[in-house]
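Appendix B. Chain record.
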Amino acid sequence: MKYLSLTLAFMLFVTISFAQAQAYQLSSHILDVSTGMPAREVTIRLEKLNEHTNTWSFVDEKETDENGRINDFLSTKNENMGIYKLTFLTSPYFRKNDIKTLYPFIEVAFEISDTNHYHVPITLSAYGYSTYRGN
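Structure tokens predicted for this chain:
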């Protein structure tokens, strides 16, 4: 009986822990297509457009992890609709790897128009990049 109580308590703890986990509406990642590897330790800045003043406001800034990802932009606890811009600060990444680049930073503007998840990544090389809406 004691084993059953401990098992139920553990299952309840796990269920509550996952139910309270923070959810995010925006993620990004960078794949360096010249190496086929994720771009680690690249700073990505997030800004939101104020459509009345036509100016950008700082929202957040994070650094890509070992997989080249940032998974936690824009908490779903907030109303996030609007026009945003991700600025990928690529110059330090290339400089650290002793590579000259045409793009010291890359700006990608996009619009969040609903409550769905948005994944806005880039594929990157020293002389080119591409972006798309991922999942």
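Further analysis of this model is presented in Appendix C.
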